[in-house]
Amino acid sequence: MNLALEAERGNADAQYNLGEMYYHGHSVPKNKKKALHWYTLAAEQGNTHAQYTLGYMHRHGEGVPQNYEAAYKWNRMAAEKGDVDAMHRLGWASREGLGVPQDFVLAWFWFDIATFLGHTYAGTDRDRLAKDMLRSKMGPHISQAQNLSRDWIKNQGLTMKKPYEQEECLTDNDLIARWGVSKSALGLWRKYRGLDFIKKPRKKGRYQVLYRLSVVQQFEKDHNICDTDLLTEKELANRWSFSRSSLADWRKAHQLPFCKKGFHNILFRLEDVKQYEKDHHLLEQGELLTEKELAARWGITKQSVCSRRKRNLPFIQKGPRSVLYRLTDVEKYEREYTIGRKY
After folding, report:
1. Pairwise CA distance, residues 41 & 161, whole Å
2. Are 268 and 238 a contacting pair, CB within 8 Å?
3. Considering Cα of 194, then 197, then 198, then 204, what sign does the dihedral take?
4. What's the rounded Cα separation, in Å, for the pair 343 and 276?
5. What is the pLDDT along the chain (343 residues), one digit of tens a residue?
6. Is 230 helix (H, G, I), strand (E, B) or coil?
7. Which end of the chain offers a freer environment for a tag, N or C, measured as fewer CB atoms within 10 Å?
């Protein structure tokens, strides 16, 4: 699927993913203004992730002048669709008076709802806010906020279950087996890529990390973790007879498409690989000569062969430092430039 084409046609998911590519610089140069453009198109169609991300960009002034009111607006839209991260941000905005008048009751309400729905840090922020309210002699307002959150939960048809009791959850070991990554890589995903988790209390103040299945499935979709027909670096290196270091050079210099599985595992979609092979003639049929073999055939140095490449000698770049020549192209070149062979 051509992502840019689908985005132009109005596909909200494609628009969001294209915004992600421009924001993070995946396969395209980083461009926050283009990212903002595609996020906005997706958000206007109701994409919750795009709405939350727009709130973040307006709050921090990325690709657009800093605007707390706009940040609050987009986060509110995402929160109303159930995005717990957006609810958490609304709690902070209401507490600090960013984009809206300062309102501790409303802040407590958003923190409490986000906690109920399983946000990792909202419970801690709610408890700190409660202490500040007690010190400011606003204790009676806490019960008012509690009533607001309970009414909201009741109106949503939800019950006061613990977050890990509301739906199926996966442990660290479950997720490691599911994705095939190490435990340390999983920790990095949580820390740097926003993999959301919840805590299940255990004895002596300890807790168990759990991942809600719906969150895991959405995360897999957003980060292309469970795509079918994926090749590892080793498999692609064997397919093309490259070294893995040459493969890394191709990714950087020749825009070989790839996706990340964790921070150190690089994967390649088979459909991208086949298209890339076609575009770069990597699996051409027929006999191939190396630079050394061609130099011996013509009785010249490898440097001279390199000079002839610059004068219309056809070649295949198989790796940044590995050049091959098709025998049919070589024979045609010999006839055209009357080059004698060395026997």
Report:
1. 36
2. no
3. negative
4. 37
5. 477 888 888 888 889 888 888 988 888 888 999 999 999 999 999 899 999 999 999 999 998 999 999 999 999 999 888 888 899 999 999 999 999 999 898 998 888 888 887 787 888 888 888 888 888 777 678 888 888 888 887 777 655 555 555 567 888 888 877 776 677 777 777 776 677 777 777 766 677 888 878 788 888 777 766 555 667 777 777 777 666 666 776 666 666 776 655 445 677 777 777 777 777 666 555 567 778 888 888 888 888 888 887 777 777 765 555 677 778 888 888 888 777 554 3
6. strand
7. C
> Is-above-0.85 flag for pTM?
no
Sheet holding 198-201: strands in order across?
A: 169-170, 207-212, 198-201
- Say which amino acid occupies 55: G
List, edge to edge, every strand of the sheet that includes 288-290. 288-290, 323-326, 316-317
State the sign of the Cα–Cα–Cα–Cα dihedral 38, 44, 47, 51. Answer: positive
> How many residues are present in the chain?
343
Residue located via tokens 């190396």? 290
Q: Please, which residues have CB within 8 angstroms of residue 123's CB and are 6 or more apart in sequence?
A: 111, 115
Eight-state DSSP code of residue 93: H
What secondary structure, in 3-state letters, does 176-200 show? HHHHCCCHHHHHHHHHHCCCCCEEE
**Closest to 231 in 3D by CA, of 265, 264, 255:** 265
Of 279, 248, 280, 180, nearest in space to 220 by CA: 180
Other Cβ atoms less than 10 A from the Cβ of 194: the count is 11
* Alpha-helical regions (H) of the chain: 3-8, 12-24, 32-44, 48-60, 68-79, 84-96, 104-116, 122-135, 139-155, 172-179, 183-192, 213-223, 233-240, 244-253, 270-280, 291-298, 302-309, 327-337
| Residues 103, 138: Cα–Cα separation, whole Å | 12
